[in-house]
Amino acid sequence: MSKRRSARSQQKSAKGKPAAPAAATRAAAAPYEPRPWRPPWTAVLGLIAAALALRLVTVWLLYRGNPLFAYTMPGYDQNVYQDWAKEILAGDWLVRKGGLFYYAPIYTYFAGIVYKICGGQNFWALHLIQALIGALTCGLLFRLAGTWLGRVGAWTAGIVWAGLAPWLFYEQGLLHEGLLIMLYAVTLWSARRIELGARAPWALAFLAGSCIFLGTLARGNALALAPVLAVWLLFARPEGLRRPESWARAGWPAAVALCAGVALMMFLFLLRNRAVTGAWEMGMKNGTVLFYLGNAADAMGYFTETPRFQEVHALAGADMSIYWREWFVDLRNAPGHILLNLFRKAYFFFASPDLADNLSYPLARRLYPTIGLNPLQWVWLVPLGFVGAAVSLRWWRRWSLLLLFAGVFSATLIMILPTGRYRIPLFIPVAIWVGLAAEWSLHQWRTRRYGPLLAAGGAFAALVILLGPWWRPEAAKPRLNDYVNLTGAALDQGHADQARRLLREFERDYPALAHRLPQLSRARFRLARLEGNQAEAVRLADQLWGAAQQAGPGFLTPQVAQEMAEVYIAAGRRERASLIARSLYAGEETRALGQSLLEELGESPGRAAAP
After folding, report:
1. Contacts of 59 (CB under 8 A, 6+ apart)
2. Cα 373 to Cα 136, 356, 497, distances in angstroms
3. Distance of CA 98 to the CA centre of its chain
4. 223-253 residue pLDDT tens
């Protein structure tokens, strides 16, 4: 028998096809084992260049199509950050105007430093630097992925980060999402280097701790990582170390250094608050507000002010502890609803429809090709990440850092609010698990293990169905408020083309409301005036005038009322313009506006009175 096998081997060799060695055959049939691959610098720089190029295209598209590129709406987070950044530009680095910060201040300081360097409020510099930070973060995460994955998996993860549609959009929103992803990336990279036995682990741990607290100045739940990572450092023995007791001695200094990094950054922030408020206080004030907003007795699981929240908010004043006290009251009175709401928030957190607040991702998908035509979307990647996470459990010690990060990050946000932009850092572990799923699937295919592959495919399909937009189609399209806000921002800046396009999209999404919503009627009037269509502007002004007489005070905003008066003056209808001007003059906040119009009409402000 052995002679016959030897003869067959010689025949194959004679034909130029040598038999595969037995060791190679056994290796091909062995179970999958991830083999770390260190990406060369040429690959890292290539990925950074590709990520930057895609981001620069997105910045250009946002400049051409997004009225919020260099504009912030009063009452929104972006406007507060820009207002505070102007204080830094004026030389007040403590931002005394902000007092004890209500909003997380890290973006304020980032924008203020950019403006100081550029010599003014330069929004182009802000967007371009954010794009560069995003691209560099992709390169760092690419190197991080290579510490767990092989070539195929690391490249898969790198491509996901470089082209991820939600990240491309939210990092340019004049908010701190891109900065937070960078801080999380540095934290995980430092911790992973320690786990792999890098020199000076205490220095890397101090860096990780500093980044954790800076991340807290972007979103408060980041602080929960500090105790978890400190404990993890005590037990996460570097791979390949033969003597566990030597790491037990080294783990304590690393854990202490991480806590020291958090403590130093915290102390500096406390010093700022002490200098501004005279008290040793820890910001920010909105943490308890957001917690109660998401967990009140009638909370809906997303960002909305319910009657119960409005009741408590009206009583709060400067007492931020009232939200905790009232939540315990709600917990006693409605434990079933609060528990059900927690499950609802967990589903909202992992489901693909984006819950908008200041920005509208569904509307961005309509307006920008790099986002709307991009296949790298939540609906496919998160289910695939779940598959990869399940595969990683076989080596749970090796993957414990990612598992802990994902668990802490998800749990703390679910406890508060699963708003769409809050969730983006979850793609740090998700992309790595997507890479693991790709490598594992490729190995199963090559070794003809079709059973596990079919099971994984079935789980992926089930998760896509469960978490996809099919169950909540209303959440997949822009809200009415998104159209109103963006159209108003476009008109405020004189961008008629942007306003017209937004109105067309609104009519497509809400045909039944297209000519019934007062906000959009006001927008059409302002657009006709901006385009110089005097006859259409007068016709729409008459419609608004009639609606205002029925609706009563407050129907017309001061800006729209002023523009209506100017249209009537240009049309020679001075009597109606005078009535509007008198109405504005009668209000304390709009008196100066009414006086200006009355002077233009040649009337004495002293004789003016409300009609």
Report:
1. 127, 128, 131, 172
2. 24, 20, 22
3. 23
4. 999 999 999 998 876 654 545 555 555 678 8
